[in-house]
Amino acid sequence: MKPSKFDYYRPQTLEETLNLLANYGDEGKILAGGQSFIPILNMRMSEVDCLIDINNVKDLDYIKIEEDILKIGTLTRQRSLEQSDLVFDKLPLLRETCEFIGHQQTRNRGTVGGSVVHADPSAELPLVFLILGGKAIIQSEIETRETELNDFFLTYLTTDMMPDELLTSIHVPISDVPTGYAFEEISRRHGDFALVSAVCLMNRNISGKITDLRLAIGGVDAVPMLADEEDLKPLIGKHIEEEIIDEIAESVLEMAEPDGDLHASAEYRMHIAKVLIKKVMKKAYLRAERKEVPN
Amino acid sequence: MQQVKSNEKMTINTKVNDKSYEVDVEPRKLLSDFLREDLGLTGTHVGCEHGVCGACTIMIDGHAIRSCLMFAVQIDGSEVETIEGLQKKELGLELKEAFSKHHALQCGFCTAGILMSAVEFLYEENHPTEKETREMLSGHLCRCTGYEGIVSAIQEVAEKNNEGR
To answer: InterPro entries, from UniProt (chain B) (predicted)?
Structure first.
């Protein structure tokens, strides 16, 4: 349980980091919080020739709002996100989700960007950023580009990034975030990886009917899954109804292919996905403020 | 920028339990092994070595962190506190007394890590609820006690400290 040998680089600036990635990207890896990556190295599931430790690149650790967009630097610790007043005020859903990420002791070290690029289909942050319409800002020596998170996750632990690229921040729009929100997950023990997680955002009009609805589910496929607008239509313009939720759950999960493993069978994962969809929709419904919406 | 080849050692400067060190370490050396083998601080226990059990938890710049999920080279310039440092602090003594009173340990393997987490927790939370205490403890595995004693001990120290304020 000791990692194999590697060359170690500790850049102080973003430029140095990108330069290192350009030179060693193929054989190297970025080390941020290391709360998923170091176990992988310890267990020798992966070996790297060179490790680029970005923990000293302090410019990548920030949470700020610019033009109605919450910008989170890649090196922001999950614990800082949890304790941020900005997040508390503007994105209560994100705040609520934080306490499900590992444990306090791992959130102290684990980073926002690290969780996103690790792209575990049952991880909390990728799922929540996905439903919030987040974007990944990716930089290399050659260019800076941004991509919708919906296109960012390709399959298990695989993203749209090239070896010479670094995820530098996550941008989340904060205007027009629906007022009703809920995050739920089921794991073997609190703090463990979720077997399945679900998240919902919802708006209601003055007479209480649903006007806006978003739903995303983690752990049922190779990537976190954002429900199609088409599948959610049956509830738009209605009050919440158990039967319609069941229908929606069926159609949303139609394409899902959960893996069965030691922790839970595929059938069980499908079952709890349906249970959780029901749970988050009801909770978001109760939390949504009734307000006038323009037609 | 600092860099070191895999077969070389890097010189790091760090403060552990208020004592300054300048040491050469191999980049792949885990912090937990560094504390035990290089500094002889064997109070930090190594359990699972992949961040699940919490036995190796220590404090770095005031935050409870798993020492098996960091490399020793990463504490360059940081202040570290381990269980050995805790025994000189008042809070450490209070926790020790409460853990003894409430039978909050049996074999003691997990205890060092739990105490380090408890210290950060008690600095941050003035009035922790039992639920919050349990949530903090969810990052530690204890196979002897069933946690009840640990929860009572930490709650008692929290309450006592509040009275003193």
So the answer is: 2Fe-2S-bd, 2Fe-2S-bd_dom_sf, 2Fe-2S_ferredoxin-like_sf, 2Fe-2S_ferredoxin-type, 2Fe2S_fd_BS, Beta-grasp_dom_sf, Diverse_Oxidoreductases
